[in-house]
Fold these 3 entries.
Entry 1:
Amino acid sequence: MRHPNHLAATLLFAALAAMAATAADAHSKKREAKAHVHGRGTLAIVVEGNTVGLELSVPAHDIVGFEHAPKSAAQKSAVAEAEIKLGSILTLVKVPEAAGCTIAKSAVQMEQDEADASAKSGKHDHSHGHGHSHDHGEGGHAEFKATYELACSDARALTSLAFPYFAAFPKAEALTVTVVTAKGQAQYEVTRTRTQLDLAGAG
């Protein structure tokens, strides 16, 4: 028989995986319809008892300013620093102290989209959300993907979130936040000008 905590963690990350697959499918369809949009990422949050799972997916451009594999020493250093910064999720997404959350697990990596035609052709029309396109020259699309598990003393106290994330990454403009709790699923958006999220009705 599985330990209850192990079962909760298994269910938690199964839910995250399902959400990630759905988001990936939607993202793929969006990219077929229009150019890749910089500045926008996604954050999935699943609350299972006092365990909280998170999955963050953001264009590499938002984090390090480029979307090809790092080549120069400066670029490699930028990626390494970004991975360290992203690993400390509780400094990027602030939770109420009353929830008593600590990071139990975290994993961060920069993923290159090898299937992107631009990786071979060296050209791709890139929309930055400002009505203009950008030719990357080489590389294609890349994203930072990070998963986390938080152990909280009282997840019921997760009634709000703040996002210093935007101060940490000046090129980031918005995050679509999906929250899944025992009460159901809800979706929100936080932006550089609206960094507070009220979850009182979600948990």
Note: The first helix runs from residue 4 to 33.
Entry 2:
Amino acid sequence: MTEPTGAPATTVLRDDSDGIVDAVRGARDVVLLAHVGPDADALGSALALGLALPARAVRVQVSFGDDPFALPESLGFLPGLDLLVPPAELLEAVDAGWRPDLLVVLDSSSTDRAGVLTPLLDAAPVTAVLDHHVSYTGFGDLAWVDVASPSTTALVLALLDRLGLALDADVATCLYAGLVTDTGGFRFPNTSPDTHRMAARLLEQGIQHEEISRRLYDDVPIAALRLMAEAVLRAEVHDHVAPCGTPGPRLVTTTVSAEDRARHGLPLDVAERIVEALRAAREAEVTAVLKQEDGGAWRVSLRSSGGIDVGALASRHDGGGHRFAAGWTSWAPPEEIVALLRTALHAHVDSPPPGAPA
């Protein structure tokens, strides 16, 4: 987990934006794909583009590859949900010989993020990727990947501008949801003057920004707060000290088992709020919440205060994300996952930065 010695030479990992613009202009049947377990940036990107494209007489379908297919409760307010198509329906159409003109994959750094819809990547004659994760693996016939972008919705807005498509309140709502969440409510260091200019432009469309924030952050049943309280009570703080005595980054961990959720009658996505609550702890330089799926696997949600690149760590375990928020899925028991995280942080502490005295 060695930290980079400086900013990358370029923040744009791949720029086929001209080709993507041409591909969209030439397509009449488009599928927009968010990643599995979609967050506001992934689904907001797909729905925003989906709401705008029919102005070009394009048939649009939006999906994500979760099985079972279930919309996260916190995203139920987003406009354009009528565009959602269950993955089984798309796969049946592919089996029957249907092919979309264009598949656009949004906010996904690797093909496994397509979940059960991975076959679509081979079925579509052209696959385009819009993403901002440094863990991008290079897939897609066309890609526009800029790690300096605060969100994938920011890239979607730039694409809409290139296509000459106008904003309205519904499109802006979807874009704002992704922007506010991927900047941590404009608290992460990826927030720049351009980020606030984008937010102002979206606010000018008449969006209800206070309602968006309430639905994303403050709209949970009391059972979810009880689950959160249990998870916080069993949270552990792990200190790391280098052999020379230098204190290292502190790790805060907790777990939410499938049994915990079942006891409160809650779906998996509700547990995502717990990592945001724990990252507020003073000790939490890195936060890890292990959430168990109904099938038994554990989703590892990571947050960083900025000193540690959790996206780089997640990418080593077939996951993804960026410097401040990332994750992966594992079948290992929680104690092994926590041990892995502690080992990674020890390695970071024990390795002096380049140029430091031995």
Note: The CA atoms of residues 240 and 261 lie 31 Å apart.
Entry 3:
Amino acid sequence: MPLSLPDDTTRQLVESIQVYFRDERDEEIGELRASLLLEFILDEIGPSVYNQALRDAQAHLRRTVNDLDVTLGQTELAHSAAVRTAQNRRR
């Protein structure tokens, strides 16, 4: 599944690529070259980043669900259980 971004985000990323080339490489590149580079990055690198983000989100959700088990795993009706235990000891 190819990654797609909103038009506004794409424009901002193209501008960012142009700024990078200008500031870091002392090279001016046009909008077309920056767009093609962004397309390559999204096609080639994007799926790896996307998949890792999904794995990270899944791990976070698993930790959260495990924490819920601890939080929700409290003794229910503790007072009633203590009363029954005391009554059983007297017998």
Note: Residues 46-72 form the longest helix (27 residues).
